[in-house]
Amino acid sequence: MVTDSNVSSDVIIGSGQTRTVADDETIIGLTVQSGGSVTNSGTVSNVTDQGQIENYSAMQSAVVQSGADVDFVGGTGSSITIDAGGSVVAGQSAHITSITMTAGGSLTVQSGAAATGITISGDVENTLVVGSNGYVSGVNVSGAADNSAQGSAGGEVHDVIVNSGGVADDVTVYHDHLVVNGGGLASGVTLNDAGITVQSNGVVSAMTVNAQGVYAAYINGGVSYESPFGNSRMSVSA
């Protein structure tokens, strides 16, 4: 339904259909069905994505469902929910905020992009990957609810990976495992019944380690600064 020349509502893009949202256009209520695609240079909100969206401008209140993809080629996004099987990639100068992820969803933050206010629940490898010159902050990760579930998941599931040149700030991990690869940086890290691996040339700073369950802290040639260890296990190797 069109309310004026530049504002549309309740738009559905079906399988095999494509739609380009112009820079002076607004869509309130957008559904992209499986096999459909949208290129957004305007403003879209209340989005349900089952297909593919390429975003250059503004996206608000979006749910990325299983099998769907959103590629932020710059632009902004807020209140983004990534379901299991959904994928979001933030690149160039993109900035996305208030992201909620469930196990099996995927968020990759590439060079020049930033993602803030990220909540992750569940245990799946590589749920959040921070690439070279990517930045994330305000990350909260909650894995398996108890030690037996941790063990059945292989003991240490690596939901969050910080790769070379990537930065993760203000990260709280519960029942999960954070990996900082060589050249990556994680700061303001709190591990609550959780673990971390810092690979050679990786850096973690201002880290607090509390009770760890089946987890441990592995500093495998990396560096740890200003990191008090409480009731914890720590392995350090050159």
Descriptive account of the structure:
This protein is mainly β and 238 residues long. The chain has one domain (48-237). 3% of the residues lie in helices and 57% in strands. The protein has one helix and 26 strands. The chain has one helix at residues 147-152; strands at residues 2-4, 7-13, 18-21, 26-32, 37-40, 43-49, 52-55, 58-64, 69-73, 76-82, 87-91, 95-102, 106-109, 114-121, 128-130, 135-142, 160-162, 167-174, 177-180, 185-192, 195-199, 203-205, 208-209, 217-220, 223-225, 234-237. Strands 1, 2, 4, 6, 8, 10, 12, 14, 16, 18, 20, 22, 23 and 25 form a 14-stranded mixed sheet that branches. The protein has a twelve-stranded parallel sheet with strand order 3-5-7-9-11-13-15-17-19-21-24-26, with no helix packed on it. Residues 147-155 have low confidence and may be disordered.
- Give the count of structural domains: 1
Record field, number of beta strands? 26
Low-pLDDT runs: 147-155
Average pLDDT figure: 87
Shape: elongated
Radius of gyration: 19 Å
Structural class: mainly beta
| Percentage of β-strand residues | over 45%
Helix content: under 10%
Number of helices: 1
Terminal CA distance: 64 Å
The H-and-E topology, N to C, reads as EEEEEEEEEEEEEEEEHEEEEEEEEEE
For the report, how would you describe the main beta sheet?
Answer: 14 strands, mixed
Summarize the structure.
With 238 residues, this protein is mainly beta. The protein has one helix at residues 147-152, and strands spanning 2-4, 7-13, 18-21, 26-32, 37-40, 43-49, 52-55, 58-64, 69-73, 76-82, 87-91, 95-102, 106-109, 114-121, 128-130, 135-142, 160-162, 167-174, 177-180, 185-192, 195-199, 203-205, 208-209, 217-220, 223-225, 234-237. A hairpin with a 2-residue loop joins strand 1 (2-4) and strand 2.
